């Protein structure tokens, strides 16, 4: 367990050294810049658009970090031959996979936390001095705590994407891993279409195949509750619990699968 | 670093299989018990347009971009239309084969905006205002305005404000007072609707086309507006009604002078010298009224209130 923590912290330090957190500066500038412009362009919809933009930016920036760092987590060690140094230490192979994954998740969590703080700060600035009638007209409060529900689900979604990237990283090259991870990401957003295949195809075998794929592929669309949160619609605790639970189970599947593959790999 | 035994690999695979079963159960549970609201309209454009696939993961943001595009489109077209409205070389829209400036993309832009985000409240309400405005302030398409609001009602049937807006379009743009009253009545029947919706229905039926009824409608719109844009639009309409009233009063004075002197009055100075008026009369926006060569009092084309709307009563009476 100590070695797992040690690998995770090393991974986190490495990403900080790689200037990954510069991403936050770009995010803050993006939000602040748009806050000045949007009020003039959107006929009073500046807060809605800022929330949409903030949550989307979190998701998009996080996706690129998860994929482009995740795909190199294990394969980079193999390419650099630094895997031999690790193998010489009293560390189990699965600890390498889990430690690397935990390090990147820590980086993503720090990123998302700071981005959330920046989003709330900008929202507070825009909403400051707002009159009572304007406040009453809002679908959701300016500093709506429910935004955190969307943020938490975005983080879990990024954890799933990181797990996909890590899984492919255990046996594939970085380029192929990136392509496969993006493929899974795209498929993850369309998996609901697979469930409804019976509405467009009559063949039973195809319907069953599509239904099976729906359950096997990661379903990423449920993690996106931006529209609900921004419009002040309820996202129940049950929905949150089931969706987070599903994400964690899928992460566990991918990490165990990745660890098993990595454990059987021959580095000679 | 040790490699795992065959037994531990098999037990790992068994765990993965168990977890997959758990994942399937969680998916089924969420789909069955915690399904989020969706709209059937959501696929209207996205299934037909390849671009829809590009923005699939960020629909709320895409709807914002389309909304900004709709506002910019409406703003630029309105500006062009107003500039060309007085151009002697351009035929008036009624005579032209096609209006000199068209708003063809306005409805599709608003439709896509509300398809991407079916709960985009302002897009329905402002969109209906944009669509129903007569040329050069808009395309003059009350049918599309009503269609947009009805689309909103299909998603949010508890929005009495959409019925208020539909009634408004029927009253002000279509001059169908029975349909307007029906819309106000249907809005009034929704839980949470204000008491005055019922009054609007009654006064629309009783005094449809009457200026005082129009003023009541716009005053309610002004009082219930919860953003600056809607409030300013209502204020402009109220000022236009004031301007029409002032023009009617001034015209009576001018007609009296014409009758007495037998000549045309094309300047305010004779009226000021005669003490009939105290100075050059200004419209509610602060721009001087003009006198035509045939002694008709009219609003300056430089006034932000120009052109004045055709009142429901005057059109139906014609």
Description:
The complex is a heterodimer of chains A (268) and B (318). Chain A has helices at residues 2-17, 22-41, 46-70, 75-79, 83-87, 93-127, 132-137, 147-169, 174-195, 204-216, 226-230, 237-264. Chain A has 268 residues and is mainly alpha-helical. Chain A has one domain. The two termini of chain A are 27 Å apart. Chain B has 318 residues and is mainly α. Helices cover 61% and strands 1% of the residues of chain B. Chain B has 13 helices and 2 strands, in the order H-H-H-H-H-H-H-H-H-H-H-H-E-E-H. At the A-B interface, helix 3, helix 6, helix 7, helix 9 and helix 10 of A face helix 1, helix 3 and helix 5 of B.
Features:
heterodimer; A: mainly alpha; globular; B: mainly alpha; 13 helices; 1% strand
The main β sheet of chain A shows up as: none
Radius of gyration based on Cα positions of chain A: 21 Å
Principal-axes shape call of chain B:
elongated
Helix content of chain B: 55-70%
Pattern of helices and strands of chain A? HHHHHHHHHHHH
Helix residue percentage of chain A: over 70%
Pair with the most extensive interface? Answer: A-B, 62 and 44 residues
The quaternary organization reads as heterodimer
Count every beta strand of chain B, where a strand is a DSSP E run of 2 or more residues.
2
Structural class of chain A: mainly alpha
Decide which structural class fits the backbone of chain B.
mainly alpha
Treating each run of at least 4 consecutive H or I residues as one helix, how many helices of chain B? 13
Q: How does the overall form of chain A come out from the CA principal axes? A: globular
Mean pLDDT score of chain A: 84
Cα distance, first to last residue of chain A?
Answer: 27 Å
Strand content of chain B: under 5%
Unreliable sequence segments of chain A: none
Spatial extent as radius of gyration of chain B = 28 Å
Overall pLDDT of chain B, averaged? Answer: 81
Q: How many strands, what sense, and barrel or not for the largest sheet of chain B?
A: 2 strands, antiparallel
- % residues in beta strands of chain A: under 5%
């Amino acid at each position: 367990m100590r070695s797992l923590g040690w690998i995770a912290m090393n991974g986190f330090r490495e990403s900080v050294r790689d200037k990954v957190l510069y991403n936050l500066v770009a995010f803050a500038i993006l939000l602040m810049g748009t806050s000045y412009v949007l009020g003039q362009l959107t006929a009073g919809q500046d807060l809605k658009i800022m929330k949409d933009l903030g949550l989307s930016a979190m998701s998009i920036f996080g996706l690129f970090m998860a994929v482009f760092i995740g795909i190199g987590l294990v394969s980079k060690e193999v390419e650099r031959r630094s895997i031999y140094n690790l193998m010489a230490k009293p560390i189990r192979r699965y600890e390498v996979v889990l430690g690397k994954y935990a390090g990147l998740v820590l980086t993503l969590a720090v990123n998302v936390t700071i981005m959330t703080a920046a989003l709330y700060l900008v929202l507070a600035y825009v909403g400051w001095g707002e009159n009572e009638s304007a406040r009453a007209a809002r679908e959701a409060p300016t500093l709506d705590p429910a935004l955190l529900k969307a943020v938490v689900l975005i983080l879990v979604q990024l954890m799933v994407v990181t797990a996909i990237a890590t899984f492919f990283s255990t046996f594939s090259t970085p380029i192929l891993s990136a392509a496969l991870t993006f493929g899974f990401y795209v498929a993850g957003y369309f998996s609901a279409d697979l469930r409804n295949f019976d509405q467009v195809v009559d063949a039973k075998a195809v319907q069953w195949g599509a239904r099976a794929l729906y359950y096997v592929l990661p379903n990423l669309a449920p993690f996106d509750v931006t529209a609900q949160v921004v419009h002040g619609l309820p996202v129940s605790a049950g929905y949150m619990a089931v969706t987070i639970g599903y994400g964690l189970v899928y992460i566990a599947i991918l990490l165990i699968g990745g660890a098993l593959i990595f454990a059987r790999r021959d580095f000679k | 670093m040790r490699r795992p035994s065959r037994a531990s690999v098999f037990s790992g695979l068994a765990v993965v299989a168990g977890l997959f079963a758990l994942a399937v159960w969680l998916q089924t549970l969420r789909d069955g018990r915690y399904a989020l609201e969706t709209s059937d309209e959501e696929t209207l454009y996205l299934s037909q347009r390849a671009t829809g696939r590009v923005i699939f993961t960020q629909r709320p943001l895409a709807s914002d971009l389309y909304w900004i595009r709709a506002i910019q489109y409406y703003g630029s077209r309105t500006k062009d239309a107003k500039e060309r409205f007085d151009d002697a070389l351009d035929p008036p829209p009624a005579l032209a084969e096609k209006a000199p400036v068209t708003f063809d993309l306005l409805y599709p832009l608003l439709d896509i905006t509300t398809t991407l985000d079916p709960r985009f409240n302002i897009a329905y309400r402002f969109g209906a205002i944009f669509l129903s405005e007569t040329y050069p302030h808009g395309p003059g398409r009350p049918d599309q305005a009503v269609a947009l609001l009805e689309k909103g009602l299909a998603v949010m049937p508890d929005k009495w404000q959409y019925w208020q807006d539909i009634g408004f379009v029927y009253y002000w743009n279509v001059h169908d007072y029975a349909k307007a009253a029906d819309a106000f009545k249907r809005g009034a029947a929704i839980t949470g609707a204000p008491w005055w919706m019922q009054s609007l229905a009654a006064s629309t039926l009783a005094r449809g086309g009457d200026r005082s009824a129009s003023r009541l409608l716009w005053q309610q719109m002004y009082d219930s507006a919860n953003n600056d844009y809607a409030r300013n639009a209502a204020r402009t309409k109220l000022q236009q009604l004031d301007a029409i009233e002032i023009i009617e009063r001034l015209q009576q004075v001018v007609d009296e002078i014409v009758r007495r002197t037998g000549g045309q009055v094309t300047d305010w100075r004779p009226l000021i010298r005669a003490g009939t008026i105290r100075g050059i009369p200004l419209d509610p926006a602060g721009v001087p009224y003009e006198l035509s060569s045939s002694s008709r009092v009219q609003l300056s084309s430089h006034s932000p209130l120009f052109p004045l709307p055709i009142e429901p009563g005057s059109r139906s009476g014609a």
